[in-house]
Design goal:
Elements (H helix, E strand, L loop, with lengths): L2 E5 L4 H14 L7 E3 L3 E4 L6 H7 L3 E11 L2 H6 L2 H4 L1 H5 L4 E6 L6 H13 L12 E7 L3 E9 L3 H5 L15 H10 L7 E4 L6 H8 L3 E6 L2 H13 L5 E4 L5 H4 L8 E6 L14 H12 L3 E11 L11 E12 L2 E10 L1
Parallel strand pairs: 5-6, 8-9, 8-11, 9-10, 11-12
Antiparallel strand pairs: 1-3, 1-4, 2-3, 4-7, 6-7, 12-14, 13-14
Helix pairs in contact: 1-8, 8-9
Bound molecules: S-adenosylmethionine.
S-adenosylmethionine binds next to helix 9 and strand 9.
Length: 339
């Protein structure tokens, strides 16, 4: 199958890196070719495509390419046999969404819908379609069937403001998912968040089938993270303690027992660092979890300033993606590997 992935327009670099990470981790064949800025094309993507859809945070949808050509006139010349659209849709309800670029006309749009509709012997339904066909322009014209819509209802339910225990310190699930994917943790793997706060990382990790361990210095955060996990029917170990004492807090995690550490340490006013600098706190946390992390395990950490990367002792920064939150805060999503 030729698969086209539509990535997030707001965080393109990170979205693309996320897709490539998952493709590599799941050992799905093929390398991505960029189509414009928002699409990645995989020529031979049969295996694992649904697993990919279930994991991604920063992509919108995965589509099967049914046809692609240079423009509307080309598409209108195709017939039902060459497009094979009737078989794709079957007899279930379908919906055709056409999005053409500037310079196109409403007539072209309705010509496409009419032309494709004539090839199909099924009812159309915008409300409950079994098959969604999308026609859009991006370096030519594409006709695709939507295989998987990403970030639908369950992801919306888990958004920061929809959790029973809420604090504005938490990062939205789509970014957390991307962090876990950039950490390349498989289903069944185990992760630690030594600064777990309200449990944003634990919630996404558990919902992706990982074993999750979280530590926070504040009782209220520990209780809140537990409440949040239970609210979504998810499991995770959450304990009060200092980020630097993982071995004491979780004695059952043996050496090399963690696949990754994914975390957003405290910085700025919204979090507690006591009298310690962020840099010293990170250094302490890293020396605490390092023996527990598999040699190939990654650390994915949000840093407000890339200069703090030197505090992640023993690890090299391999990738970073900035996200401007407001005038005085940029979150840099940083990926580290052991030196
Ligand atoms: C930026 S917040 C983490 C937010 C979290 N990702 C979430 O989803 O809510 C940082 C957290 O680190 C905790 N913290 C501060 N100092 C700590 C320490 N020494 N050890 C463990 N946790 C600490 C704070 O209480 C705060 O909840």
């Amino acid at each position: 199958m030729r698969a086209l992935i539509e990535i997030s327009g707001e965080q393109k670099g990170m979205a693309r890196a996320e897709v490539e990470s998952v493709i590599e981790m799941l050992d799905l064949s093929g390398t991505a070719t960029g189509i414009g800025e928002r699409y990645l094309l995989f020529e031979d993507a049969d295996r694992g495509i649904s697993e990919l859809g279930g994991r991604l945070g920063l992509s919108h949808r995965i589509m099967e390419v049914l046809w692609n050509g240079s423009g509307v006139d080309d598409l209108l010349k195709e017939d039902g046999r060459s497009l094979d659209i009737a078989r794709t849709i079957g007899d279930g309800p379908f919906y055709i969404r056409v999005k053409l670029g500037d310079g196109s006309t409403a007539v072209q749009r309705s010509d496409i819908i009419e032309h494709l509709g004539e090839m199909v012997d099924a009812p159309d339904s915008a409300e409950r379609p079994a098959t969604v066909i999308r026609v859009f322009e991006e370096d030519g014209l594409w006709l695709c069937r939507v295989v998987s819509e990403i970030g639908r209802k369950d992801a919306r339910d888990r958004r920061v403001g929809n959790r029973p225990f809420f604090a504005p310190i938490s990062i939205e699930p789509k970014y957390v998912r991307a962090m876990l994917n950039l950490a390349r943790v498989r289903e069944g793997g185990s992760i630690l968040d030594p600064f777990c706060g309200t449990g944003g990382v634990l919630i996404e990790g558990a919902s992706m089938g990982m074993s999750t361990y979280g530590i926070d210095i504040l009782d209220q955060m520990v209780e809140g993270a537990r409440t949040n996990l239970a609210h979504f029917g998810l499991e995770g170990e959450v304990a009060r303690g200092d980020a630097g004492s993982v071995r004491e807090v979780f004695p059952t995690i043996g050496e090399g027992g963690l696949d990754a550490v994914v975390t957003d340490p405290p910085y700025g006013r919204a979090t507690t660092v006591g009298g310690e600098t962020t840099s010293d706190l990170i250094e302490r946390a890293v020396s605490g979890f390092s023996p527990l992390l598999k040699p190939e395990g990654r650390v994915v950490m949000v840093l407000p300033d890339l200069a703090l990367a030197h505090s992640v002792n023993g690890y090299k920064l391999v990738e970073s993606h900035p996200l401007r939150v407001h005038r005085s805060l940029t979150r840099n999503f940083c990926i580290f590997e052991r030196r």
